[in-house]
Amino acid sequence: MTHLQAGLSSETLEKAKVELKENPDTLHQDIQEVRDMIITRPDIGFLRTEDAFILRFLRARKFNHFEAFRLLAQYFEYRQQNLDMFKNLKPTDPGIKQALKDGFPGVLSNLDKYGRRILLLFAANWDQSRYTFVDILRAILLSLETMIEDPELQVNGFILIIDWSNFTFKQASRLTPSMLRLAIEGLQDSFPARFGGIHFVNQPWYIHALYTVIRPFLKDKTRKRIFMHGNNLNSLHQLIHPEILPSELGGMMPPYDMGTWARALLDHAYDEEADYCPESYTLSVQDLEKDLEKDLSPKTMKRSQSVVEAGILKRPVTSQEDNMKPLLSLD
Fold it and tell me: Which of 6, 64, 119, 203 has the most CB atoms in a 10 Å sphere around its CB?
């Protein structure tokens, strides 16, 4: 084991070896091979190239050097193409702070039986008068940046649950194709995280309609990991044990406190008030939509751990996992 694997448990080390083809004897060589490819993309500013940073991209792509480099390039290219999104990417940014305090995202305290961190979104909490969809996306990306510092999560990955209860048609109408594509590009194509499942619960018909819009931009692997449970929470519980879920999802835990993760990130700044006008940011978002419609195509789209340790990480809870039928096309 090298110093780059020092944060991994013995179980996760074995998982990295078997599932990701991670070999401690060749780890530095693997990293260097990815780093040597940087010269092929002089159009991109690779702002971080240290060993530990490149390693998370190798893990996300099961040590396929070319795919790991492509993900690394897309990570920085996405940030170059969307500079406004990454200005002041901090928990105290007013829009991000508002989104965090409303539970975008929520982060459950327990891991699942596979050591995966569970992110939870209650879609109806989106207060469109206080922050934009882009603010939510920024809050999620900031949260992932914090959590991916944990090497255990680099190997084990994440689960995402979205509860669409009481999410109105008016709220859904603000989810434009350009915005959804922006999110897909940022999360699916440009971030070194392994998502083991994306679960929709209590989704109305118009969410199914939105899915048909974004489906062409999803990779086949992503499609196979999307599950539509509707109001059948039993099917969710077959994949994620109710012992670790909040009561809103039929679980045994207390109702989820939306401010849990926000307080972990913001600390003393949680209760500080800040003025924010989402309309002013919406103007730049509209300009961004125009650019996306013009510049983004399916081809182009192919193109502080301390916070986590402070109280979010706990031992996984064992559950029985059965095979589930993934979402089918609604053609």
Answer: 119
What is the number of alpha carbons within 13 Å of residue 10 lying toward its C-beta? 0
Asked if 16 and 8 touch (Cβ cutoff 8 Å), the reply is: yes
pTM for the complete prediction? 0.83
Q: Can you tell me which residue has the tokens 């993760």? A: 261
Write out pLDDT tens, residues 107-150: 999 999 999 999 999 999 999 999 999 999 999 999 999 999 99
Q: Tokens for 36?
A: 């040597």
Show Cβ contacts of residue 155 under 8 Å, excluding neighbours closer than 6 positions: 8, 12, 15, 16, 19, 20, 22, 59, 115, 194
Burial grade of 189 (CB within 10 A; 0-12, 13-18, 19 or more):
buried
How many whole angstroms separate alpha carbon 42 and alpha carbon 29?
22
What is the residue-averaged pLDDT of the chain? 86
pLDDT band for 273, please (50, 70, 90 cuts). confident
Cis peptide preceding 105, ω within 30 of 0: yes
Element (DSSP H or E) covering residue 175: none
* d(C-alpha 123, C-alpha 166), whole Å: 8
